[in-house]
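User: Here's a chain of 95 residues. Predict its fold as tokens.
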Amino acid sequence: MTARRFWVSGKVQGVFFREWTRQQADRLSLTGHALNTADGRVEVLAFGSEASLEELAKQLQQGPPAARVEKVVAESVPEGTPPAEGFMTGWQPVS
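Assistant: Prediction complete.
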């Protein structure tokens, strides 16, 4: 199992982006989360096969119809990070 974190910028909050991402993750058999961040981005953490993560990356570039994705930054997640169960959406806690 591989993990990847994506930071999605643009008009991605308040446009069904997190729920749409959950639907894509379910379709691709991925687990993880999609969280709104205080700076207006969406953080997507996904666990699954490399092929499914690549497909999710392509989908995130488009987003749902009401979104306007400006940028997607992908980063590796350290090996040994415990995989998530299911796929959740919400807000990232402010620290």
